[in-house]
Predict the 3D structure of the following.
Amino acid sequence: MPSSLIIGGSLSGLLAARVLSSHFDQVTLLERDTFPDGPEFRNGVPQSRHLHILLLKGKELFTQYFPGLEADLLAHGAVQADAGTEFLTVSTFGRIVPVSNTGLRLLLSSRNLIEHHVRQCLKGVKNVQILTQAEVTGYLTGNTPDQITGVQLRARGGETIPTTLHADLIVDASGRSSQTADWLATLGYPHPEMTVVNSHLGYATRWYRRPNGYQSPWKGAIVGVRPPHNPRGGALFPAEGGQWTVTLAGINACYPPTDDAGFLEFARALADPVIYEAIRDAEPVSPIYGYRRTENQWRHYERLPRWPGGLVVMGDAACGFNPVYGQGMTSAAMGAALLDKQLQTEKRFTPAFGQAYQRKLAKFLETPWLMATGEDFRWENTEGARPGGATRLVQGYLDRVIKLARRDPRAGRAFLKVVHLLEPPTSLFHPAILFPALLQKKGE
Ligand SMILES: Cc1cc2nc3c(=O)[nH]c(=O)nc-3n(C[C@H](O)[C@H](O)[C@H](O)COP(=O)(O)OP(=O)(O)OC[C@H]3O[C@@H](n4cnc5c(N)ncnc54)[C@H](O)[C@@H]3O)c2cc1C
């Protein structure tokens, strides 16, 4: 009767539970919080107050694992929008005016709505048990530390829970604050190398009621930062209940204020007035929330010379990104999909199983990591090991593609597919994009 345990009941953990339910007789998900009954805030996921975009690759995987999810979200007010025509995007080179539908349909809602409905979908999966107020405090091993065989638990509420649980495979999906590295160190394993790239980005988010009868050709707007001079960006996305989520972001410690006047003033100073003009007379329905724990952080478990059997680490626990690129939930889904694939052919949870998984995950992470950190390194004060000249050349080329996208729908669509992790960045070097991008004249 193979069984598995998952540490953490946020999106990585929920996706892992769904995947493991196809391969194990019993799956137990351990979450230190209690889950709210509805799509509400909980302490374990403080970022959920901020704008969350589910990239299109993520949408594809979420709906593959939870086929009813899209319909559930739409029935509860999520908004669909074409990623091109229904979004006003302001890049470094000005407004991108898409001339035709991209056919790339975004599904937009609050992060709380997504997580709530994923939880609801999981409730229908019979062999998944959810234990809340159950905080994992360490790993258990057999006679030697070569195999993780279970976890130690602490009850966070009044309910009695077991103090230990055993399983054949344990998945750490406990987010950025994961303690796996420390717990493994107590068992004699070396700490993994950690790469950190910090552009000192800060978020401030406020929710608004969309004014009745508000007329605009777009459903959402994104105003990008403009390196090297304007570190302020912002986004306005529609969400359920006729709301707008407005997140302002400042890079290189140009943090957006969290008071009413300062928030509006920051919005006014963006490179384009579209967001300020939309919100200046709109009714706020929330306080302004700040957030600053946004560094890219990669724990390189794939590089450890020794790894125990019975354990894998995924989601933000392995690698967390600067959130402005919207890659976290999609990377969580990719991590679950990779585990699914591996479990289809391997069911012996030896050290080699975990090592192989961490390496496959790392291979996938390379692309989103390069995309996120490459953008961050456009800023002088970003901390971390700077990439070489080749990255700057690629960035120069990407700028040309973005410029071309203002008037060439094919380039715009290709660029969106890369941003949404549907296609690799190499797809932008297709001759149909490469030549017009390189042959653009100055001022075009
Ligand atoms: C400000 C901000 C904005 C973001 N915007 C986007 C976006 O637009 N698009 C996107 O795709 N991603 C975004 N992300 C990233 C996204 O939120 C995460 O990638 C996503 O939640 C998946 O994370 P996770 O499940 O691995 O970890 P988390 O969401 O951090 O969840 C970890 C879970 O583990 C639980 N836990 C922790 N320790 C223990 C323990 N010892 N025992 C039991 N339970 C434990 C916690 O309570 C929590 O429920 C954003 C992140 C931030 C910070």
Notes: The domain at 200-291 is CATH 3.30.70 (Alpha-Beta Plaits). The pocket of flavin-adenine dinucleotide is lined by residues 7-13, 30-33, 44-45, 47, 50-53, 135-136, 173-177, 203, 291, 315-317, 323, 326-330, 332 (CB under 6 Å).
